[in-house]
Structures are given as C-alpha cells and as structure tokens.
Amino acid sequence: ETFKREKIWLVIMGLETSSKRYAKALIGYGVEKDNLDILFGEISSLIDTLEDSEDLKSFISNPTISKDIKQKVLNKLISDSLPNTSIVINLLSKNNRLDMLIDVCKGFIKQYNTYKGIVEVTITTPIVISEDIDSSIQAYLKSIENGKIKPVNKKDESLIAGFTIDYNNMRLDASVKKRLEKMNKELKKTN
Known about the structure:
The chain is built from eight helices and four strands.
C-alpha cells in the first residue's frame, strides 16, 4: 500500500516537472516570437474549452486513440480560433505527451503571470461579494504583495460566512466554517 502511494506520487511529480518544462519552453517561444500576450489569450481559451468538455478530456486521455489522430482532431478544432496554440499540441504530440495538455497550459498561465509580475489571488466567499468588499480586499492585498493583483472570485456556500484568500501557496481563512471546525476540535479535546 505504501509502495503504491509512493509510486503514484513519483509519477505525479514527474508529470508536474515535465509540464513545467513544456510551459517554460512555451514562454520562451512566445517571447522569441513577440506574441506572448496573444499566446496567453489563446491558451486561456484552450483551457476553458478543455475544462468545459468531458468528451474532449476523455478523447485526449484515451490510450487507444493514436497520437496522430488526437493531433489532427485538436488542430482541426482550434486552427481557426486559436492558431498559435497548435505549437503546443504539435510538440506534445511529437513527444507522445498530449495527455499533459491541460497541465502544460495551466503551467504556462502560472509562468506567464510570474513573467509579467501578476499575482493571481483566489477569493472564495459563500455569496457574490460587493464591489466595495472586493476593492477592500484588493487594496489589502496590494499592501502586502508586490505586483499586479489578478483576482479570481469563487463561490463556496459551505464557508457559511466570511471568506478565504489563496495566493502564492498561502491561505488566509476568515470563514465561519474554519472557526466552527476549530471550536469543534477544541470541544473534542476537552471531552
């Protein structure tokens, strides 16, 4: 059991490292061709397309479909609307790594943000927040973080009230859910 978990972890870490390398190469390509911002927009759209289609994800991850067929289908799907993304599809197909497409694209977005000095911040609340609260949170984040703040708002009703803020591998949790979990833990200790 432990050996199996360690093996799975090593495979995941290997894929993560590989996807970062491909993403870094894409950044270099975009800088060299002076189309990094265009590439960013197209890769963002590709991520949305991939995440919205379970069928497309299944198609890409299906080991019984050849890499050539996958490459042709993907290039046909995106050739008109996302012409610059064919570079990543062709590269991954050539190396038989199309199963990593979404990870490479997400890695590219992270590296693009780093390259441009953009800090992506995920603000999770149980309800849609007002512009005033959003502005206050962004002002707070600008005071503690260098770079341009790019907020991503998410809704999670399980928080009950309050919010969580995730950025740079850190979490600020000011939710009622977290407070209740702490109280429950303390009550169990005393009993």
